[in-house]
Design the sequence.
């Protein structure tokens, strides 16, 4: 599957170099020169990864990062001209997964892109947590060796939790990741899906793994 990458930078030379290098690597590439455009493009077609410059006109990169993270779980790679510890910490605190300092070598950036994609939903291999196991390739899941009969959305929901263990996932993030929609807050379809998935995971009195974090969302974690 071809990964879709959104590259955001107000320097057209950098943006051109990014688009060319990523396209040669086989990625589908969308570009934006400012924060507002980046947010609009990400909402219209959620990318698999975002490369995001911190210093953008209008809506700055850290704000874009925070707004993206509120509804989207994919990897964010920051481009920054500042290499101080506080600057790096600020980006990571806003939800970024990694950063590259400008000026950067394209080979290094491409390696970081590959690593982030492997780590997230395009990565191969089985996923596990406790006695729970899921194989994204064969679309099979089991708990304690017992097969789980899951609907496609339940499978995607469980896969999302397994790719982000112990992390609190909001309803907005789950809606975007699993159903591909913006959560309006007026429907309980996510809570209903969680309830049904829990029922299947907890057959036979097995312990609860999907915990409610009141006021925030849900998390895959032990009691």
Sequence:
């Amino acid at each position: 599957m071809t990964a879709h990458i959104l590259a955001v930078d107000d320097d057209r030379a950098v943006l051109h170099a990014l688009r060319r290098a990523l396209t040669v690597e086989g990625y589908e590439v969308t570009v934006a020169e400012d924060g507002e455009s980046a947010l609009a493009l990400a909402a219209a077609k959620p990318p698999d990864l975002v490369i995001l410059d911190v210093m953008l006109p209008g809506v700055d990169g850290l704000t874009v990062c925070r707004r993206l993270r509120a509804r989207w779980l994919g990897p964010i790679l920051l481009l920054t001209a500042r290499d101080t510890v506080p600057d790096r910490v600020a980006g990571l605190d806003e939800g970024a997964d990694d950063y590259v300092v400008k000026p950067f070598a394209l080979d290094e950036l491409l390696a970081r892109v590959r690593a982030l994609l492997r780590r997230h939903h395009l990565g191969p291999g089985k996923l596990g947590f406790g006695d729970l196991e899921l194989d994204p390739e064969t679309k099979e899941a089991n708990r304690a060796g017992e097969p789980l009969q899951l609907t496609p959305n339940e499978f995607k929901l469980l896969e999302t939790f397994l790719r982000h263990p112990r992390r609190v996932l909001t309803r907005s993030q789950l809606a975007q990741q699993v159903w591909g929609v913006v959560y309006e807050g007026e429907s309980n379809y996510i809570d209903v899906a969680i309830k049904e998935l829990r029922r299947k995971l907890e057959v036979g009195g097995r312990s609860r793994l999907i915990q409610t974090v009141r006021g925030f969302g849900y998390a895959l974690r032990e009691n």
Notes: Residues 39 and 168 are 22 Å apart (CA to CA). The radius of gyration is 19 Å. The mean pLDDT is 91.
